[in-house]
Amino acid sequence: LIFKMCNDHPYHCLVPLMALANGKIVGSDAEASTYLENTGRSKVDVAKAILGKLKKDGLEYVGDLIESYDALITAYNELAYAPVKHLVEKRKTKKIRYSDVFQSASSVPLDRCLRKFQRVPCVLTCTPPLRPGKDYGNGDEDPIGGERIAGFESVFDITDA
Prior knowledge:
Layout: H1 2-8, H2 10-21, H3 29-39, H4 41-57, H5 60-80, H6 85-89, E1 96-97, E2 122-124, E3 146-148, E4 155-156
Antiparallel strand pairs: 1-4, 2-3
Helix pairs in contact: 1-2, 1-4, 2-4, 2-5, 4-5
């Protein structure tokens, strides 16, 4: 049922499913443990399995959206947990280049995380209307209430707190 709902109405179902699938990536180990206690590891594992099945057997544009949302989520998480203490100590909190934080070649910074994707995700500013005909323009049209991500600045700011 969830596979069908995500495949038929991706803008309504993918983001919550992806949030559930990323349940193990929640702040500290204690926060992750609390989240997993409340949610259950099996739900996280099943959410990941459904996303894998959607990428393999679902509509092509749904698989593309999952991959681009996943890249975006990964880049946001890496930025959120990036070590910035050394920058705060130097009082460098404005116009920070991603290369000042990400030294590893395995990390793809936020400003470059969506470059390889033909279909980039959109940010939903409100719940889009459900389309009974399941016509979402093969992922090329923004749903009402959605804004396509055009890109990100090459620098970012942090608070000094």
